[in-house]
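Page 37, continued from 36.
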């Protein structure tokens, strides 16, 4: 009889632990919305584009970034689906660029990107790009790069450039409006041992986006369920939220080098999009290598507010690879053998 009570007690404890775990899982939401209202906005069947690697939407214009294409950017009308302009050539001629870095920033008036090999931030007027009668001249500004401060990807908020990359100290690199390196006292929210210094950033990679309206920046760690939110004041950067993660990225050693163990680390938070009010992630609980074998399309999008609070989970009628969002729609990429399609999902 005593043994029976012990077994019942153990079962109750295990059930309680399971419930607590499920409540803290990043994809556990009280509100789940299945989206059924959607349409096909754009197809590149008539004008084939390179693979879309990033996209943003602002003021009714979707800007897509391409890999292996003559032009780096395409501009698409978000209401009609019309292809407005293709822009951004590689080269060393007038208004050409050696490279376009990784990712870009789209503000109300500017397209901003890195020319990483030259350590430059380039800004171009969107109006000038779209106006055939104007010359779209880029404004270029250099940024610091040292052995201990190696910026890789960037975003801009409150006049400051916020970089992810490889830094001797700190989680992020911050450069103020005077182009000076600011102190970032915040370290990685998970253990990086045995890695230290700049090696951490080369292994634990991340994505970064900002909200100029709220003066906040979000950092997403790849192959994990970890994200952080920072508040940017006039004088400092403060970390205001870290997700209660269960699956930080795991390391493996090959020879004398460390890297992410994609057999043990989850795919986790994959693609990220932001609007003035919300943060969105595509998500998979599968291991990274397993997810890659099955394909990186997903139909599950997690939505948080800019305080890190869960808002709702969206279930899409079709899987997408990458996406962006505004107040009314999620714009998702779907690839097949014949074409790339941008679908518009009504929120």
């Amino acid at each position: 009889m005593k043994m029976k009570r012990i077994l019942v007690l153990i079962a109750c404890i295990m059930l309680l632990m399971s419930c607590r775990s499920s409540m803290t899982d990043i994809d556990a939401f009280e509100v789940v919305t299945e989206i059924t209202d959607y349409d096909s906005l754009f197809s590149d069947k008539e004008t084939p584009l390179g693979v879309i690697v990033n996209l943003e939407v602002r003021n009714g214009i979707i800007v897509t970034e391409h890999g292996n294409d003559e032009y780096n950017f395409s501009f698409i009308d978000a209401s009609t689906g019309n292809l407005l302009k293709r822009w951004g050539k590689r080269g060393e001629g007038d208004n050409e660029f050696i490279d376009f870095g990784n990712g870009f920033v789209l503000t109300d008036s500017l397209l901003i990107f890195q020319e990483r090999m030259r350590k430059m931030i380039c800004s171009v007027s969107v109006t000038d790009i779209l106006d055939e009668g104007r010359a779209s001249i880029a404004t270029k500004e250099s940024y610091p790069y040292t052995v201990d401060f190696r910026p890789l990807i960037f975003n801009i908020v409150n006049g400051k450039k916020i970089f992810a990359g490889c830094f001797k100290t700190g989680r992020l690199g911050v450069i103020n409006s005077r182009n000076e390196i600011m102190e970032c006292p915040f370290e990685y929210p998970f253990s990086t041992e045995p890695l230290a210094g700049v090696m951490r950033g080369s292994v634990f990679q991340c994505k970064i986006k900002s909200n100029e309206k709220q003066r906040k920046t979000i950092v997403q760690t790849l192959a994990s369920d970890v994200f952080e939110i920072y508040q940017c004041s006039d004088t400092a950067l403060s970390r205001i939220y870290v997700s209660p993660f269960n699956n930080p990225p795991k390391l493996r050693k090959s020879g004398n080098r460390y890297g992410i163990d994609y057999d043990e680390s989850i795919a986790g938070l994959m693609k990220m999009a932001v609007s003035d009010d919300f943060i969105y992630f595509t998500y998979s609980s599968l291991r990274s290598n397993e997810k890659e074998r099955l394909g990186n399309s997903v139909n599950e999008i997690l939505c948080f507010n800019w305080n890190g609070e869960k808002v709702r989970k969206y279930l899409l009628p079709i899987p997408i690879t990458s996406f962006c969002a505004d107040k009314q729609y999620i714009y998702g990429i779907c690839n097949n053998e014949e074409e790339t399609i941008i679908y518009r999902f009504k929120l």
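The first strand starts at residue 32 and ends at 34. Flag for discussion at group meeting. Residues 6-22 have pLDDT under 50 and may be disordered.
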